[in-house]
Amino acid sequence: MIPATAPAEILGMSPLWLATLLMIATYGVIISERLNRSIVALLGAMLMIMLGLLTQEQAVAGIDFNTIGLLVGMMIIVSITRKCGVFEYLAIWSAKLVRASPAGILAMLAVVTAVVSAFLDNVTTVLLVVPVTLIITEALKVNPYPFLFSQILASNIGGTATLIGDPPNILIGGQVGLSFNDFVYHLTPVIVVVLAVHIVSMHLIWGRKMLSSAELRARVMAFNERDAITDARLLKLAGAVLALVIVLFVLARPLGLDSGTIGMAGAALLMMLDNLGKSAEEQSESVVKVFNEVEWITIFFFIGLFIVIAGVEHAGLLRLLADQLLAATGGDFATTGFSILWASAVLSAIVDNIPFVATMIPLIKSMAPAFGGAEGLLPLWWCLSLGACLGGNGTLIGASANLTVAGIAERNGIPFRFGTYTRVAFPLMLVHVAICHVYLWWRYF
What we know:
It is built from 22 helices and no strands. It is mostly helical.
């Protein structure tokens, strides 16, 4: 039986140093991508327990099951909803709305991608919208790269606006107790501005130079968006359930419901509605297919990561780092907030923003006594969210949606190089974060 408190030394080292080295090693292997990140996170978690840095009870307590429930629930909802073709419908509809103008399509697809990413996970959004984008650009005979580049940035921008749009926000909301309404009220205003700046930037860089003949534009206008809807009944059911889930997110606080509960309830309801009237064998096949499409790699990555972070937190590392950050900023609230914003942005462009945010959450929580308690920390959570989510746009490895689009592009013969992307994306990311800096200063500091 592992003792409730860690011994003074483990393998001749203090628990603080051992936990720190174990976390660094775990993150290092994750960044190297030599081994699947879920395997690395789970191995790191098991070593935290086996070496006595955490008891099994502490490890389980460190897992945020509200976050896990929300992730799984929304993944199931998206998995079922995508079958009806609604995302393809939106992409074609938006292209026809601007009369198949290449510059107009560049802007409209950015808006569609951002809005959809605010309510569904951004990786799924780009998986569904990008193939339609390639069909449209092929019909217009225009370079698809600007469209794909724009959709990467738009997906991460849109995902920043809500609790459920991006994994860092799901982490922050779940572990801090922030509601869907909190994210909309505090983040959506500045994200609307950032999205507008993004659209203007894309027009100035690429859109104004795009040309296509009237004949080619007529080909796109001949597309029938209704043909994209493959299951009208499922479209109505999924739309109703998704609307209900969003309403429950808005009312979560007065109803006393956690976001994970709402996500799982919506998933269960949609699965039930999708399987009504089917035989037992058809139901089994349908449910197996849906569960197979849940990103279990991501789920178990989160579980392992939660335990690793619990290990370094129990060892005292995060308290030490918080003290050092406060000392470096002189305990000034605004300076601390802006340090978190810019550090989150730059580091999230280099490393996966999920482990970074998972580490920062307990670190920021430990600053509560210095800033008047948990309520006083609210602006710091917005600094962390904006920096981590928007920082992911800086490089191809900054966010999962980036690599997803790059992979689709490469498979379709479209070069998507790290350096080429970063030369344009990193400066734009800095502009977007600078806008957030001004917004945070004006509203909170």
